[in-house]
Write a structure and sequence with these properties.
By secondary structure, this protein is α+β, with helices and mostly antiparallel strands. Helices cover 42% and strands 18% of the residues. It has 4 domains: 259 residues, Rossmann fold, CATH 3.40.50.620; 73 residues, Methionyl-trna Synthetase, domain 2 (Beta Complex); 130 residues, Isoleucyl-tRNA Synthetase, Domain 1 (Orthogonal Bundle), CATH 1.10.730; 90 residues, OB fold (Dihydrolipoamide Acetyltransferase, E2P), CATH 2.40.50. The longest helix is centred in the middle third of the chain and has 31 residues. It binds one RNA strand through helix 6, helix 13, helix 15, helix 16 and strand 18.
Length: 678
RNA sequence: GGCGAGGUAGCUCAGUCGGUUAGAGCAGUGGAAUCAUAAUCCACGUGUCGGGGGUUCGAAUCCCUCCCUCGCUACCA
């Protein structure tokens, strides 16, 4: 039989923060299990990943910390790479998009599109901040709306009245970065005509679905995009952090990160083969029609992998002799939440991968996550459940079965495999099971039903315990040693099968099991056979999984929601600057909900200078009645703004707690309204 | 408000292109066993399948409507 050739990618994690458990559940662990299974099966499989290191958020983080973007990406690339290693991810290559080979690859694609005259160049005027020497993204420009007079309108769109206009019409524009008035400067960008590919993309998605049964959530998502109609997308930006646009005179322009990041898979593959001295080896995976390409991602990445990336590859294939493969399947997972809520670093909700693995072995985490993957819908990670899975499944069912078998073999059979004697019905049924389970589990993995596969793995261990119980070797050792030997022989074969089928999920424990058996993996297809014969010397038994105590779990639960101490590095202001802010007490006279608004309340307050109206975004935290007669603190000299067409003359002060709940600042009610806060 | 996803056993989740008494794991209760990490095995589920209405011989599954949760997004924390 010919070896299947498979290319697997996992979404490139963004090098702007540490990865957390949710990422692992979405795009990495399922892929790793799939890949390890195929390696065991003997497929010719290549697993590619790396850091995505360009884009605006990274430059913002860098500015905030006062360091270079390179420092940010180096930090998180290394951190995430190490975290993946600790988690026992088996990437063949973990590259990064800042490498020259990636820049070349991305530029080559761009140039090919240019040569094909596919890209559309559109000129437009955009605001340029002379002081900061940069083009300003829309949200960094404010001005007065030419239609309604709203003073905080964006450069080309007013949020207040909803009108769209040309940036040149904006009155009194100012840069949010330097505060200066930006100039309008002409710039041009290239657009990728996604719409031109819509028919072919729909065909591709539908046919792939028919042939390979795409997941329902992925299909629904694609249909949504098709229904709305695909539009041109800008592929370049005015920024200096990223892959330079490879054209003369395009200084200060880079490829938009959505355009180049997906190409990182190709660059990483090139890098892998180059390092092996096989310069063209990557083509064997990307451009050979016998290869299957599977792209594992989280649901947030769906459009990029089912629509944009395929369109880009189609576009390349239209103009070049060497043609790329499109993904055969894009098994996108939903999200993993943490104790019922979304992961949030800033709110101290969740745990980093590397912190977790300081406390517990990778296998325990891998098993727990794998048995509750968000394959159909968002799922939850609970510390209690982690403990239960580790203790009552890994340790008690699997670990204990292995242990009781080895201890028995050592005590009664000189640590050697006893002879397989005459088989009773119960023995042959068990032997049948170790043949059938790997087939069943393998087929589930191949259909991306990893969660079910993991359940079946543990079911084999359950069946093994039952077999041990029912054959009662502790009785037969006294009454019929041959029969007892048969039981232990079968149990040894079971352990060898367990080691193989559990290998993709808990590779470390699987390795230990093989060592204890004093043998190696025989490959998935052979793992259900009797392969350790009478007299085979066994290794030293050891405990596979230790239990997790209640204390350490409660400790972790108690830590939740406590925000880590971060270094305080907000910019300093002078006393003069502070004294410009006029904080005053105020009493709430009236409060009402604003129709059609979820967050806003309309307040009438009494403060210095009389009564005024304030629109406050606290409707989700306070009912109007609760606020009446409260003595609060407001910024009294804030420039008035219009929200939902209502004027807000000031802003109330509130603090946000770790759950994102708002608590307004209140004073003693004996304070007269209008008192100055200092 | 808009868009999307979801509401199934105490908990975490399967099942949903309509079809016999709605499932698994965990937890719980009772029992068996004592080789083993006090680990195993067996038995035990009266769940309004979020509420209501409709289509149908038949609905957890299809349609309508309402309620609730979550995510993204929009509007001053």
């Amino acid at each position: 039989m010919q070896r299947e050739k498979i290319l697997v990618t996992s979404a490139l994690p963004y090098a702007n923060g540490p990865i957390h458990l949710g990422h692992l559940s979405g795009a990495y662990l399922p892929a790793d299990i799939f890949v390890r299974y195929h390696r065991s099966k003997g497929s010719d499989i290549l697993y590619v990943c790396g850091s995505d290191e360009h884009g605006v958020p990274i430059t913002i983080s860098a500015d905030k910390e006062g360091v270079s973007p390179k420092e940010i990406i180096d930090r998180y690339h290394e951190a995430n790479k190490k975290a993946f290693e600790k988690f026992d991810m088996s990437f063949d290559v973990y590259s990064r998009t800042s490498r020259p080979i990636h820049h070349e690859t991305a530029q080559t694609f761009f140039k090919s599109y240019l040569e094909q005259k596919l890209l559309i160049e559109k000129k437009s005027f955009q605001f340029y901040d002379d002081k900061a020497q940069m083009f300003l993204p829309d949200r960094y420009v404010e001005g007065t709306c030419p239609k309604c007079g709203f003073e905080e309108a964006r450069s080309d769109e007013c949020e207040n009245c909803g009108s769209l206009y040309d940036p040149s019409e904006l009155i009194k524009p100012r840069s949010k970065i330097s505060g200066e008035e930006p100039l309008l400067k002409e710039t041009s960008h290239w657009y990728f005509p996604l719409g031109k590919f819509q028919d072919r993309l729909e065909k591709y998605v539908n046919e792939s679905n028919e042939k390979y049964k795409w997941k329902d959530n992925v299909i629904q998502y694609c249909r949504g995009w098709f229904r709305d109609g695909l539009k041109d997308r800008a592929v370049t930006r005015d920024l200096d952090w990223g892959v330079k646009v490879p054209i003369n005179g395009a200084d200060g322009k880079v490829l938009y990160v959505w355009f180049e990041a997906v190409l990182g898979y190709i660059s990483a593959t090139k890098e892998f083969f180059k390092a092996k001295g096989n310069e063209d080896g990557w083509k064997d995976f990307w451009q050979d029609t016998s290869t299957r390409y599977i792209a594992f991602i989280g649901k947030d990445n769906t459009v990029f992998h089912t629509i944009i990336f395929p369109a880009m590859l189609m576009a390349w294939n239209d103009g070049n002799k060497e043609k790329y493969l499109l993904p055969e399947n894009v098994p996108a997972n939903e999200f993993l939440n943490f104790e019922g809520k979304k992961f949030s670093k800033s709110r101290g909700w969740g745990i980093d991968v590397s912190d977790f693995l300081e406390l517990f072995p990778a296998d325990s985490l891998r098993y727990t996550l794998a048995s509750n993957l968000p394959e159909n819908k968002d799922t939850d990670f609970h510390w209690k459940e982690f403990q239960a899975k580790n203790n009552s499944e890994l340790a008690d069912i699997l670990g204990n079965f292995v242990n009781r078998t080895f201890v028995f073999a050592r005590k009664h059979f000189g640590n050697k495999v006893p002879a397989l004697g005459e088989l009773q019905k119960i023995d042959s049924e068990m032997i049948d099971m170790i043949k059938e389970y790997p087939v069943k589990i393998g087929s589930l993995i191949e259909n991306y039903k990893i969660k079910d596969a993991v359940l079946e793995m543990m079911n084999l261990a359950r069946a093994a315990n039952k077999y041990f119980n029912d054959t009662e070797p502790w009785v037969t050792i006294k009454s019929n040693k041959d029969k007892c030997g048969t039981t232990i022989n079968v149990c040894v074969q079971i352990i060898s099968t367990l080691a193989e089928v559990f290998g993709p999920v808990i590779p470390d424990a699987s390795g230990k099991m093989f060592r204890m058996l004093n043998t190696n993996s025989a490959g998935w297809v052979n793992c259900g056979t009797i392969r350790l014969f009478e007299g085979h010397e066994l290794g030293t038994p050891e405990i596979l999984f230790s239990k997790v105590d209640d204390e350490i779990i409660s400790e972790q639960i108690n830590k939740l929601g406590v925000v880590e101490q971060v270094s305080y590095n907000e910019p300093m202001i002078s006393y003069e600057e502070f004294s410009k802010i006029d904080l005053r007490t105020a009493v709430v006279l009236e409060a009402e909900k604003i129709k059609k608004s979820k967050k806003l309340l309309k307040l009438k307050v009494k403060t210095a200078g009389g009564e005024r109206q304030i629109i406050a975004g606290i409707a989700e935290h306070y009912s109007p009645d609760e606020l009446l007669n409260k003595s609060i603190v407001i910024v009294a000299n804030l420039k008035p703004a219009k929200l939902m067409g209502l004027e807000s003359q000031g802003m109330i002060l509130a603090v946000e707690n770790k759950d994102g709940e708002l608590k307004i600042l209140q004073t003693d009610d004996k304070i007269v309204p209008g008192a100055k806060v200092r």
